[in-house]
Amino acid sequence: MTEKLTGLTQAEAEKRLKKDGLNEVPEPKYNFWKEFAGKLWNLSAWILEGALILEFILGKRIQALFVLAMLLFAAWNGASKKKQSRRVLDNISHKLTPTVAVKRDGKWIKLNSKELVVGDLVSLQAGDVLAADVKIMSGDLAFDESSITGESDAVKKHIGAEAYAGTTVVRGDGLATVTATGKNSRSGKTINLINNSAAPGHLQQLLTKIIYYLCLLDGILTLVIIIASFIKGGDFKTFIDMLPFLAMMFIASIPVAMPSTFALSNSFEATRLSKEGVLTSDLTGIQDAANLNLLLLDKTGTITENKTAVANWNNFSDLDNKEVLELAGAATDQRNPSIIDTAIDDYIVDKGLVIKDKSKFVPFTSDTGYSIAEVDGHNVKLGSFKQLSLIDKNANEKISHVNFKAGRSVAVLIDDKLAGVFILQDKVRPDSKKALNEIKKRGIRPIMLTGDNQKTAEAVAQEVDLEGKVISIHDFNDNTDVSTLAGIADVLPEDKLNMVKLFQEKGYIVGMTGDGVNDAPALKQAEVGIAMSNAADVAKRSGKMVLLNDGLTSIIKILDAGHRVYQRMTTWSLTKLSRTAELTMLLTFGYLFFDYLPMALNAMVIYTIMNNMVTMMIGTDRTHITYKPESWNMAKLAKIAFSLAAGWTVIGMLFVWYLNTHGFSHGTVSTIVYVYLVLSAMLIVLITRTRKYFWQDYPSKLVGSVQIADVLITFILALFGIAMTQISWTNLLLTFVIALIAAIVIDLFYQPIMKNR
């Protein structure tokens, strides 16, 4: 029956494509104002809105306008960065559109799924994700329809049944005719391999912890101020008068710019990776790459070239060599050939022989271990010698002179009798050894996984300098010492998920490469699942990264991107914690020692806005690549940040003491403190962003430009007395010198700590 299914001609397909359009449903356009409104309805916004209402009730209209400006800026900025991230992921998603095996003009070709039209004849096999509604024309298949029904159990379908876009073939193979595309399909959308959620993963936990630390500090210091005010003879009116300041202390603690910084940094790296041959389907994969300490690597297509060739052929049948090879060729998959199928086909063609047509064909699956063809009255099986030897009980008696250690073996059974054995060899990629050394330099343990036998795996491991021993999967258990492993042989695809889980239970952050249908669960389970360029659709959908090029070099680029994001977020965290702690401590101790808050409310609001402007740009900053797996140690970050804050606070308090004891008015002190805090905030960014002294390194142009703009605006406001008490050039210069000296002293003391953080 399958011979009668010819599909469309290219000319007819082009006519239908012109008439019906591409097989896609455009994503709903990004609605900026809807996203903007959403940013006004979350925890951070609620705190700002509460403060806004409080300021109006207390009659602080000017301050209320500042808070309103901050609220609207945060919403606008968040919506803008979300739009930018969405645009990046949308651009990448076009490159992740799956290809489909389609019969056009009587020939099987690979086609972008967007070019499918009604009437196209397509080939389906396990792992394919349907890009259109189809009617099954041949074969028995099982589908995962959870994407449209929510039910996880596989649904069996036979000839004449309908299958729908968005569902996955989990078992079987066959042919199908496209019945509906794009908006006319049941699901109403095409397959999109991008997870558009840009949730920051464990970085979201970091945000929660930072808010916790800052609110805890603010709560303690607020309580201190309230108690002190009553001890100093204040009354309820005094408490009411202080409410705006206390509210602003909490407002200053809100990480308004953090989501924007995350989005900017991640989308920045996703764009960069897409230009380097790596497509990102989940932004958390970039972040987790910095923490990676164990990488499980497929041998074929990753360490070795994604090509294999027949190195040796042994004929054990009574038939002549020509006939056996042509029968063996009939058992290779012509619709969706694997690298093994291609190698055997090439060997047969090079011999001047032909690939015979078969009357019936069942492709290779990992469940059976072989393919089956009916041709010229013979039943031909092609696949694993181990599996096929269970059918021909005498097979082991014929293979005494075959060197199975020389490479990968593929056996041929004709009428259930061993007819021959191919020995295939993979060539190690020229970049593998260098790339693996780079991965090891980063403190990551690479372990090679292969279905080959132990001796073959040992030879490859030795060639690429993988240190340790190679064991069989049969010897792998909970007590295996991971630090001694170079590779694991005899691995079946379904073994990989168990290995990933076991390594995670041992505390490892696991990266995983894969390309097959059965690799999908392991790719999804791993913190950094990496689908190879030739991976099945379901594997690409399960991984967080998809490589466009073979080999290991692209994986190093992923690691570097992860470290860049980590460094920027570390800088952001240290900066936010130390700046906020400095502000709250300086105000608290200033009130305790001098009986007033040494900073005007207007200045406090402006200071908060200035800080958010520069910290938001940290997502684009220049960074350095570290050579060790990172980890988010909040306790350590908090200690460093609060130590930095303590240094700035001590120097700041000495400066405030000097100002108060030398006749400076409260208004002048307030403006000087504002300038000091802005300068210290800019300098803290410079100190925390590098492991060198801050004067030995420089930030990105965007970060540097915003910092200069912040400082210039601060100087203008202070010199002209805009929204604060005017100060002289002399006082401004004095404040600048004090802040610069403080930064130098603090950096000389803390640089060794920052270098080893």
From TrEMBL:
Keyword Transport: no
Chain ranges passing through the membrane: 62-79, 210-231, 243-265, 640-659, 671-690, 702-723, 729-750
Main subcellular localisation: membrane
UniProt keyword list: ATP-binding, Membrane, Nucleotide-binding, Translocase, Transmembrane, Transmembrane helix
Subcellular location: Membrane
Domain (Cation-transporting P-type ATPase N-terminal): residue spans on this chain: 1-60
Bilayer topology annotation: Multi-pass membrane protein
Keyword flag Transferase: no
Pfam families given in the database record: Cation_ATPase_N (PF00690), E1-E2_ATPase (PF00122), Hydrolase (PF00702)
Protein's UniProt name: Cation-transporting ATPase
Organism: Lactobacillus intestinalis DSM 6629
